[in-house]
Specification:
Strand order of the largest sheet: 7-6-9-4-11-12
Oligomer: single chain
Distance between the termini: 54 Å
Largest sheet: 6 strands, antiparallel
CATH class of the largest domain: Mainly Alpha
Strand content: 25-35%
Mean pLDDT: 95
Number of helices: 16
Number of domains: 5
Radius of gyration: 27 Å
Structural class: alpha+beta
Helix content: 25-40%
Number of strands: 32
CATH topology of the largest domain: Glycosyltransferase
Length: about 675
């Protein structure tokens, strides 16, 4: 049988998160996470009741000290070098693992008919047993505590000797260790996402020093860079290559179009997202390298149209939830906790994984209850001092306000998501969440809706609306379903298409703006806006998409952010926005119903031109869509349907369907 390493739920994620977030540096200074971190429990008991038909020898591996109890409490037995002989019959085996030094207890038991897996139980010795967790670690010698991404070698495409240093160019952004051959003395490394950054030792974001005389030939931490400037203490021949960390993916979406710009944008977005898909979904690979819930919420959706990597997605969701008593919002950001609640339901919408919802239902409830404990007598969410209301990178959005409409709208979305989660789990709390959501909706309309301006206003000052209109607030009102048909019409024409309303400049919030515009029927506008926004970066030589792009800036001005010359991330997960918008709205692929057992395809043919695409479906499935002239071809591994105009065509799994298109209407002939 195939045995897996097992552990107490959440411990692998907590341990791995701590290791990942300890690797952030600003220049040579460590930057630990600025929010609460959690430790793992050192003592766990694993147990299994089973019947053997014949005598069997078990191979037992553990990540720490362990004892074995067989058949009854207190009946401790010894194994011989990890091998335990058992007679036929009914048995109970308990493995108590104690693991010190920051590692979590884990065990692997393997026999001919018995194997450790999710059908084992475990306890923190707190009086409660829960199903054990595992994550695909089946190799006996591969302790999950030592989990690390594989590396691949990459040689520089250019090495140029300059005054005082050698400048290496890897050709595109990478996340890598630096390895050197030859040379003498000390090496000073200056990393850069841009050439200017690498050659600016006083302002570059990342530095390293290696002493070759001490045998230091490989950097200790992988870092993000395209360019590397190396200063040698002593002259000598020096060889360099990078060892790039990669997260192998069994599936990778593809898209090509007769509109060449769309192809380039998609491929660059895919590479951007791949680099930020690591042990978890990171926000950016150069500066933060942390797991932020708001960033991750977008990554979950992008993931469904790129890799469908549920292992990384589940790991990120669980790690963000932490453990124990909740005292502050995720990442200290109020909106990021609300996004986590919404993403919990979205995970099910695309996967149908009810087991995951049930396993983490208790934590979901604890997070929801924490948010509701921060509401006032009117049910409005208040964010106390010391916690951050982010919304977007725009100082005007989070200044001098008592109560933010954005938070109330997100809380409404979180309550609606909670209602669906509890309904799926047949939990009576579903009705209470629905009632609270509707009561909150009434308050939001009473306090923030402005008919005169055609949108929801930003915040309250001294109990009254400040009257300010921003896109971010109204975008979220559309996407959470808060806005009705009348409000959506007003928001479209008087806010989102109104040039006097301050524009959104971050890829983060453009993600939501593009989605809202598509929901409001503006797919052609979105396609052109995306081409303009992302091609602007490509025209400047970008090999990945940035945290923010402002076309009014010039030269090295593009790299500045947070008051630092090179503070901006040039490879940011939310820069992969285009993957989700293209897949979900322009190609038009989505779950036909919760659980994604069937798909619905509704391509915006008037926008796309000729194209060829392949996207993942759940459980390793996929769908191919090809449009050439007046023919649309669809082949998928699951059943679904295609909506063209007013016509719905059924698609059978494994059977290619060819549709002739109506040249005038873009529908089916």
């Amino acid at each position: 049988m195939k045995a897996e390493w097992i552990w107490y739920p959440g411990e692998f994620e907590i341990r791995t998160l701590n290791r990942v977030q300890a690797r952030r540096f600003f220049r040579e200074i460590p930057q630990p996470p600025i929010w609460q971190s959690f430790g793992v429990s050192p003592s766990v008991k694993f147990s299994k009741i089973f019947t053997l038909e014949k005598e069997e020898v078990l191979d037992i591996r553990a990540s720490g000290l362990y004892s074995l109890e067989l058949d009854r409490p207190g009946n401790f037995v010894r194994d011989e070098n990890g091998r335990l002989e058992l007679s036929p019959g009914l048995h109970t085996l308990t493995v108590h693992v104690f693991c010190d030094g920051g590692k979590f207890p884990a065990v692997r038991v393997c026999g001919e008919s018995l194997a450790s897996g999710k059908d084992w139980d475990c306890t923190l010795l707190d009086g409660e047993y829960v199903p054990a967790d595992c994550g695909g670690f089946s190799e006996a010698e591969r302790d999950p505590n030592d989990y690390a991404l594989p590396v691949v070698r990459r040689d520089p495409v250019r090495a140029e000797r300059k005054d005082g240093h050698i400048l290496y160019d890897l050709g595109e952004e990478c996340f890598a260790f630096c390895v050197f051959e030859g040379g003498r003395g000390k090496l000073r490394l200056c990393y850069g996402e841009s050439e200017e950054e690498a050659e600016d030792p006083e302002a570059c974001e990342q530095l390293d020093v290696l002493d070759l005389s001490r045998g230091e030939r490989r950097t200790a931490v992988a870092k993000a860079f395209r360019y590397l400037a190396v200063t040698q203490e002593e002259e000598g021949e020096l060889g360099f290559h990078a060892e790039c960390e990669v997260r192998p993916q069994p599936f990778c979406a593809r898209f090509s179009s007769s509109e060449e710009r769309d192809t380039r944008i998609f491929e660059t977005a895919l590479r951007t997202f791949a680099l930020n898909t690591r042990e978890f979904f990171l926000d950016g690979i150069k500066r933060d390298r942390w797991v932020w819930s708001g960033d991750a919420t977008q990554s979950y959706l992008i993931n469904k149209y790129s890799f469908f990597d549920l292992e990384t997605e589940r790991r990120t969701i669980v790690a963000l939830a932490g453990k124990g008593e909740i005292r502050r919002h995720f990442n200290t950001i109020t909106d990021y906790t609300l996004f986590w609640l919404i993403s919990f339901y979205d995970y099910y919408r695309y996967t149908g994984d009810l087991e995951f919802l049930g396993r983490w239902q208790r934590r979901f409830t604890q997070v929801l209850d924490f948010c509701l404990s921060r509401t006032d007598e009117n049910g409005l969410l208040i964010s106390p001092r010391g916690e951050w209301v982010f919304i977007d990178w725009n100082d005007a959005l989070t200044k001098d306000s008592e109560c933010y409409a954005f938070l109330q709208i997100l809380l409404y979305g979180a309550l609606k998501a909670a209602k669906r989660v509890y309904a799926l789990l047949k939990d009576e709390r579903a009705a209470a969440c629905e009632a609270r959501a509707e009561a909150l909706k009434e308050q939001i309309f009473r306090l923030f809706w402005c008919e005169e301006k055609g949108g929801f206003t930003h915040s309250l000052l001294e109990g009254k609306s400040d009257g300010r209109i921003f896109r971010q607030i109204n975008v979220m009102a559309v996407l959470t379903g808060l806005a009705g048909e009348h409000e959506k019409e007003q928001i479209l024409h008087r806010v989102l298409l109104n040039e006097t309303v301050p524009p959104i400049t971050t890829s983060y919030m453009r993600f939501y703006e593009f989605a809202a515009l598509c929901e409001l029927g503006q797919k052609a506008l979105v396609a052109e806006e995306m081409r303009s926004y992302f091609c602007g970066m490509l025209s400047l030589g970008a090999t990945t998409f940035w945290e923010q792009y402002d076309p009014t800036r010039h030269g090295a001005e593009h790299y500045a952010m947070y008051g630092r010359k090179y503070g901006k991330s040039l490879c940011h997960a939310w820069g992969a926005t285009q993957i989700y918008i293209l897949g979900r709205y322009l190609v038009g692929l989505r779950p036909e119903e919760d659980g994604y057992d069937r798909f619905r395809l509704e391509p915006a043919l008037e926008v796309l031109g000729d194209f060829s695409a392949k996207f993942p479906l759940k459980e390793g499935g996929w769908i191919e869509i090809d449009r050439k002239g007046q023919t649309l071809r669809v082949l998928a591994t699951r059943d679904g349907s295609v909506l063209l105009g007013d016509t719905i065509t059924e698609i059978q799994a494994g059977r290619e369907t060819v549709l002739a298109l109506d040249q005038k209407k873009g529908g089916k002939k």
